[in-house]
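Example record used in the benchmark description.
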Amino acid sequence: MRISARADYAVRAALELAAAGDDTSLKAEAIAGAQGIPHKFLEGILGDLRRGGLVVSRRGGNGGYRLARPADAIAIAEIIRVADGPLVSVRGVRPPDLSYTGPAESLLPLWIAVRANVRRILGEVTLADVAAADLPDDVLRLADDPEAWTNP
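Model output (structure tokens):
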């Protein structure tokens, strides 16, 4: 799985909104500046998040963006899906739509297991968890593994 810049920026923008609170709107310029995200790129991402029902926007002097739901009700997976599409795909195809034959036949359950684990982790962790630096214990255990970021 590869986390694109678009998905990373979308999650970071949503975290800025989560940190601002439920009743506070932030302008795109403020989010872009706080997270070092190119403003024009962020505008497109925020538009996608709005169309995806994750943020709401208001125009005017007191306008800006805010989360459409409480931060503890928005999973990281939702943001990535809205910004980038499916969490895991193979050649742009979702694993259940693939078929393999011969010695490659067992690839299908492998890809499905990868997808299930990614979905489990990103679907379990919310914006509130990340914003509060309160990740679930199983996520912290995985991240604490010294080999988690090393290549064999």
